[in-house]
Every structure is written in structure tokens, then in C-alpha cells.
Amino acid sequence: MSDRVAISFVVPAYNEEKTLTRNLSAIIAEIERCGCNAEVIVVNNASTDATGDVAASFPEVIVVDEPVKGLVQARKAGYQRATGALVANVDADTIVTQGWLNRVLEEFRRHPNLVALSGPYIYYDVPRRTRAAVRAFYVMGYGFYMLNRFVLRVGSMLQGGNFVVRRSALEEIGGFNPKFSFYGEDTDLARRLNTVGAVKFTFGLPALSSGRRLLEEGVFRIGMRYSVNFVWATFRHRPFTDEWIDVRN
């Protein structure tokens, strides 16, 4: 096995002591199944609970402390510490599925022009009708992804918290955009990455995730908020919404 790190997992974590163990266990299990050289970085993002202690309890994990609270700030801190040719952005309440890592490495091996790869969430803790509504939202979103990427050529689509990017491409576009703090950050990244290579969204790369935000704010409200920010980030290059609800409280 080469000593070179093939992929770096970056996990931004703000007050995620309840979800982090399951998240890290799934990532480490995937790395062991794959047998590739990988590293796992947890960005302890101004947490006031035991998030940092939970992360440090895993000997395989690198802990980075980022005192400035914010999702994009945490992703940036993790990316700056990462050494892998690929950077996997996986949120702390997300669980990678078996075979996820092999699929990622194979896609990037087969397609040298691929600069980013993403897949959908499967919300494991919401009612069946909510999961059905989410599937419908993804189908609609996939249609806009095809339109924007292949017809209008103005951008693409990434699911924040379940995407992988080539480090070289992220460097080429100047890294993460400080204009975005939460909503629209993945769409903005997809738009800018689309200028230097292929950005692919596939239903073949699902990850499990908590539906706590859906349950807190409601499916319709969340769907509208993400949709408007998707349009704003694609065509106006800025977020529509600068504030978000902290569902951990």
C-alpha cells in the first residue's frame, strides 16, 4: 500500500457528542473494508459539549479545533489540514453506507475529469410519508441538476454533507466561499467546481442521515428554503438566507 493518503474524511462537528460515535465508526469500518490509505479529521467547531472528547477517543482520528462557529468555516479548517488527493465532506449526523468508499474511489479512477461526486441522503429517523416527500424533492432536484449541468451549463448539484472533491480542483477555484455560511454553500461549490471539471450527482452514492432539521422545521418549509437558496447560489452567486436554526438546541 502506498504511504500517500488517497482520501481525507472531513467531519465538521458542533455539539455532536450524541451522533459522532456512530458517524466515525461507520467511516472507519468503510476504510477497513476498502483497505485504502485514508485519514479522518474531525473539526470541533466551537462545541460546548463533549464533541472534542468523543472525537479524541478514536485513535485513528485527527482533531482540529476551529473556534469560529460556522459550517463553511469548519469545512475550510478541515480541508486545510487534509493531505489526501480526495476530500470527503461528511457531516457528523451522517452515516456512510457499506460500499460507499469503493464506489467513490472507482468513480474518480475511471473518470479523470471528475472533480466532485455526491449522492442523496436517506433519512433514517423520519416517518414514511416524510421519506416519500424527500424522494420527490430529490427527483425534482435531479431534473434541475441535469438542466443546469448539461443544458444551461451554469452549475451542478452537491448534497452538503455527502460529497467528495478533488483537492487540486478545490485549490484551483480558491477553496470554500466565505460569502456562504450554511444555506447554498454546496450549490455554490458545485457551480464553481463545474468550471474546472465534471461535478456528478448520483443516486448510487446514498448516505444515511438524521432528519432532525426536517422534523424541527417541516418538510415544506425546508424544501422551499433549500430551493430558493439553490436558485440564488446558482444565478446570483450569493445565499438568499444567511441565518439558520440550530436544531441541536
General form: globular
Number of helices: 9
Indicate the mean pLDDT: 94
How is the main sheet built? Answer: 7 strands, mixed
Structural class: alpha/beta
Strand order of the largest sheet: 3-2-1-4-8-6-9
What percentage of the residues does DSSP assign to strands (E)? 15-25%
The span between the termini is: 44 Å
Q: Output the helix-strand order.
A: EHEHEHEEHEEHEHHEEHH
- The percent of residues in helical segments reads 40-55%
Count of beta strands: 10
Q: Could you tell me the radius of gyration in angstroms?
A: 17 Å
Residue runs with pLDDT of under 50 for 5 or more positions: none
Structure characterization notes:
The protein is α/β, with parallel strands linked by helices. The chain has helices at residues 20-34, 51-56, 71-81, 100-110, 128-152, 167-172, 185-193, 212-217, 219-236, and strands at 7-13, 38-45, 61-66, 86-90, 94-96, 114-118, 121-123, 162-166, 198-201, 207-209. The N and C termini lie far apart (44 Å). The model has no long low-confidence stretch (mean pLDDT 94).
